[in-house]
Amino acid sequence: MKRKSVAQDVKPDTSKPTAIFEAKEGRAYTVSVALPGSIINNALTPELKTLLAGRIARALAVFCVDEIVVFDDEQSKQQKGAKDHYHQNADGGFTGFSDPNYFLMHLLSYLETPPFLRPFLFPLHPDLRFAGSLPSLDMPHHLKSHEWCRYREGVTIKQPMEGEKLKKPKKRKREEAQPKEASLVYVGLPQKISVPVAIPPDTRVTIKLPQDSNISASENGSVTGSVVAPSTPREEDGYYWGYGVRAAASLSTVITECTYSGGYDLTIGTSERGSPVADLCRQMPDGDWVPQFNHMLVVFGGVAGLEVAVEADGELQKMGVKQPNELFDYWVNLCPGQGSRTIRTEEAVWLGLMGLREVVVNKGRKRVERRGPSSLTLVK
To answer: Phi/psi class of residue 247: alpha, beta or left (left: φ > 0; alpha: ψ in -120 to 50)?
Structure first.
């Protein structure tokens, strides 16, 4: 009888997650997703609306999406039969029925924010009532106090006057007031971070710490750091640093109001009437390959597809656009031969990001190429 090797006797520890994100090299390219806020209308109760938003947020985090754009396809009409006390968004009430675009953005922004910053940046609100039941996104910038990273997300805090104690976070020692041209930042550590620039309180910032910083969960005091752009962790070291949330008044403004220099240079629309998404991972019938990109945009439709968004977009109607496939470089079907009559948008996001994963990894440029201003062009 053969003796088992030591390696065979050692079982993997499955009590904790092992798929921890590791930054290897800087990443210049970005991936953006756009979808209509009207998909929230598909859920009939506040709990289900919250769960739907959570499923989308999980997909964005798993596939390292850098930007989510919520656009208005004018299908977000106030749902009939909803209780009146849910329609008080003007007074700080629940917005899931009266303004689903805002509700979706509110939930996505809340979930992307590191948990230790949420008490500072998000006051109690009916929209967030059930957010605590959602699965954690657990992204690289959601750091614990004992975890080290040269970057951390933080919020500027009110500088204490002499003899004054900070109320948040609790259990902090008194400290002398900083110079007027400096700010204090809370980053989830016992130490406050001092940055040599004046920033209003309650402002979220990205902090870069010196490599030789002596930071531990048991120490107090302060450490000097620097404020950097939110894209710096991604561009310099390759960290996935969460997603930004942007609103768009229509489908066309998703493209024309792009915040990236040069706009989106690879746009993909999704529809059951498109070509199989697998075609993008191999050579096209016309002999061309999917080009390398700096900023990729993937657009998903609502219940009635992207066609209704085109019909409701006044600018597109003026340009004579009749079909949504005219707007995109590629028009793809995410699940050819689907067994169900319909694929819900929150399901399509998972299918699309998985199907396009190979394109993202192989075609995304590591270095940014500067281009001209963003504009809306029709694909011939």
So the answer is: beta
* Alpha-carbon distance values, 250 to 149, 221, 320, 352 (Å): 39, 49, 16, 22
CA distance 207 to 195: 9
Q: What are phi and psi of 104, to 5 degrees?
A: -65, -45
Q: For residues 158 and 31, which has the higher predicted lDDT (pLDDT)?
A: 31
Tell me if residue 255 falls in helix, strand or coil: helix
Strand partners, 154: 205
Q: Which residue(s) pair with 207 in the sheet?
A: 152, 227
Cα 86 to Cα 110, 133, 315, distances in angstroms:
20, 20, 33
CA dist., res. 288 & res. 298, Å (int) = 20
DSSP E strands, the chain: 30-36, 67-71, 151-157, 183-186, 192-195, 204-208, 222-224, 226-228, 244-248, 266-276, 295-299, 330-333
Query: Looking up tokens 């496939």, which residue turns up?
Result: 325
Residue range 319-337: mean pLDDT, rounded: 92
User: Which residues neighbour 124 within 8 Å (Cβ) at sequence distance 6 or greater?
Assistant: none
Count CB neighbours of 278 within 10 A: 13
356 and 246 Cβ atoms separated by less than 8 Å = no
pLDDT digits (tens, 9 = 90+) for 21-58: 676 788 999 999 999 999 999 999 999 999 999 999 99
Q: How far apart are CA 166 and CA 6, in angstroms?
A: 54
Question: What integer pLDDT is reported at residue 213 of this predicted model?
Answer: 61
Return the amino acid letter for 213: S
SS3 for 367? Answer: coil
Residue 306 identity: L
206: phi then psi, degrees, rounded to nearest 5: -105, 130
- Contact 207/228 with Cβ under 8 angstroms? yes
> Alpha-carbon distance 178 to 349, whole Å?
46
Contact 113, 122 (CB under 8 A): yes
